[in-house]
Amino acid sequence: MAVSSVEDNKAIMRFIVERNDARDFYAYAKHLSEDFVGHHHFIPDGLHGNTSLSDFFYQVEGISFPDGNHTIHHLFGEGDLVGIDLSFIGTFTVDLPMGVPANGKQVEFRYNILCRFDGEKLAELWWFPYDSFQLMQGLGMA
Predict the structure, then answer these.
(1) Res. 1 pLDDT band, cuts 50 70 90
(2) pTM of the full predicted structure?
(3) Which of 11, 118, 134, 142 is placed for a possible disulfide with 123 were both Cys, Cβ 3.0 to 4.6 Å?
């Protein structure tokens, strides 16, 4: 497997965010390893496989927040790790697959993602919402 640079890995993360905002969710599956694992507080068993991240974003952003967009505030990298600090804003129009009912309100929250690369492929990803209360308010859960 080829070795990628930190800058290459950061570019892949920027590409993933941009493709999500363009509603082209499956454009980046080739950048995920076959045994990709995504860790998310909404999904106790995690995401598994190179299309699982695309499937997740399609269900959550493409369907539940069809007008949603991200802003990348910071993008850091060291070794095989990339950290991204971003915010999301979108209208919650369709129930989330996790059973959270839509409320028609605009939701805005900021969060962090830590990514581990294996060669040229995204191998593992962790979501860390650091303003969970703002997110829960927007979803109508608090």
Answers:
(1) low
(2) 0.87
(3) 118
